Amino acid sequence: MRLYLRLNGFFVTPLIVHSSEFGKTKTELDAVGIRMPFHAQPDRQVGFDPLLELIEPKIEVVLCEVKSRGEKGHFNPALTDNLSALQYVLRWVGAFSAQELDEVSISLQKQLKLPQKKPPTVVLERGVRVRCLIFKPETDRRYDGRPFFICGGDLLPYIHSCLVPEATRNTCATTYDLTSWGRDEPIVKYVKSLKTGNLGRMKDMYKQLLGKLDGK
Fold first, then answer.
1. Measured between alpha carbons, how far is 127 from 133 in angstroms, rounded to an integer?
2. Tell me: the pLDDT tens digits for 146-191?
3. How far apart are CA 70 and CA 72, in angstroms?
4. Which of 79, 98, 134, 159 is at a distance of 20 to 30 A from 198, taking alpha carbons?
5. Confidence band for 4, pLDDT divided at 50, 70 and 90
6. Which of 146, 51, 130, 42 shows the shortest CA–CA distance to 94?
7. What is the pairing mode between strands 59-66 and 150-151?
8. How far apart are CA 81 and CA 75, in angstroms?
9. Are 202 and 191 in contact (CB under 8 A)?
10. pTM (2 decimals)?
11. 3-state secondary structure (DSSP) of residue 105
12. DSSP readout, 191-213?
């Protein structure tokens, strides 16, 4: 998820919602992503993923949760049921005035309580859009009629298109020291190791990475 958002032009970070009760937190988000309206990386020769619908120039804010091991594709109850926790997140982002904060948080929370064919979304007239995204990387595909989520079958093909071009790019080298990717280095190595025509599967990537951690 983090690498996918990064390749689509987002600054990405996890976020803890702090509690006043000692030793506890209210909740945490797997990722908050922010994308500025004029992001561009033409040398890479790959556009954004159409799935994200980043068409009009807007400040994009995405609140993301990852679901695995068969978890249902719903946001944490701490956000769906606790307005102050959602307001905390939006206040931290810093893209909303005090008046907008109430409007955006109330609208998002109403949407979060219901199954959605599209991500819960609020768009402000001044060009800021905030959406809530569920990621299910262990799921290979999405099914019609079910609540929207981004699956592994969406993530890996896009990452592959960015990192493993079909033809050599004269504007953007793809062979270099992969440690530059930091935390994402193991994922980048996996994608770059795939044979031509193989886009990979999340389950196979997990097995390979876990095997290396175990010394196999």
1. 19
2. 788 999 999 999 999 999 888 888 888 888 888 989 999 989 998 8
3. 6
4. 134
5. very high
6. 130
7. unpaired
8. 10
9. no
10. 0.88
11. helix
12. HHHSPTT----HHHHHHHHHHHH
Q: Which helix (H) or strand (E) holds 30?
A: strand 25-35
Q: What is the C-alpha to C-alpha distance for residues 115 and 205, in angstroms, rounded to an integer?
A: 30
Q: Are the C-beta atoms of 137 and 202 separated by less than 8 Å?
A: yes
> Using CA atoms, how far apart are residues 63 and 106, in angstroms rounded to an integer?
15
Distance CA 138, CA 203 (A): 6
User: How confident is the model over 24-34, as a mean pLDDT?
Assistant: 86
Q: What are the residue ranges of helices labelled H in the chain? A: 2-7, 77-80, 83-93, 98-112, 152-163, 185-193, 202-213
pLDDT digits (tens, 9 = 90+) for 65-116: 998 877 776 788 888 888 998 999 999 999 999 989 999 999 999 998 887 7
